[in-house]
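Design request, tokens follow.
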């Protein structure tokens, strides 16, 4: 178990967070700080980023996250910590799925066409990939579909190939992993061989 250590924040008058911490006499436990950051995070947060904010050792941040995960599980909390890619974020406990769905009375979904779904699958399994490579696999032009996936935040530009025309290469994003509820691309189901 991690010892409750106090964090002494750097004094920087330009940072409103430091001003807030000064109000709290400049000391908070690392557990409180990590939990607070995960609570307000809109997307998964890398432990190194948290460590940088807290001026703490990244390994201590990871150990703190693991301790919080265990604590939430053992006390049957309404939320859990999930690892998505290289980051962590708080999510509602999956066991509450039906209750929360009824409470919210809606199921937020990203509308995705069949063409978008096929293109997204190609990018997910073949990345990094260019629009031309996607079009060769699908047999049709995919420019507008790829742009739509970028606009939805499911795909991102990740550089250019060093070949004539320098085509843009695409990869999936952490939002893609988050929506699928997987931690990394290695968690994607294997492709079935076409025999």
């Amino acid at each position: 178990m991690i010892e409750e250590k106090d964090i002494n924040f750097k004094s920087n008058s330009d940072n409103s967070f430091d001003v807030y911490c000064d109000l709290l006499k400049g000391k908070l436990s690392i557990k409180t700080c990590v939990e607070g950051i995960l609570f307000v995070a809109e997307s998964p947060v890398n432990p190194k980023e948290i460590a940088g904010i807290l001026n703490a050792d990244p390994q201590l941040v990871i150990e703190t996250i693991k301790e919080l995960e265990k604590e939430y599980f053992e006390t049957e909390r309404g939320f859990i910590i999930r690892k998505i890619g290289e980051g962590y974020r708080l999510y509602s406990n999956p066991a509450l799925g039906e209750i929360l769905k009824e409470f919210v009375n809606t199921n937020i979904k990203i509308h995705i066409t069949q063409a978008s779904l096929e293109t997204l699958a190609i990018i997910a399994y073949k990345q990094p990939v260019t629009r031309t490579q996607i079009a060769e696999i699908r047999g049709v032009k995919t420019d507008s579909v790829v742009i739509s996936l970028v606009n939805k935040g499911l795909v991102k530009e990740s550089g250019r190939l060093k070949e004539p025309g320098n085509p843009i290469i695409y990869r999936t994003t952490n939002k893609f992993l988050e929506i699928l509820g997987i931690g990394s691309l290695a968690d994607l189901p294997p492709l079935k061989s076409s025999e």
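Comment from the thread starter after seeing the answer: thanks! Residues 71 and 131 are 45 Å apart (CA to CA).
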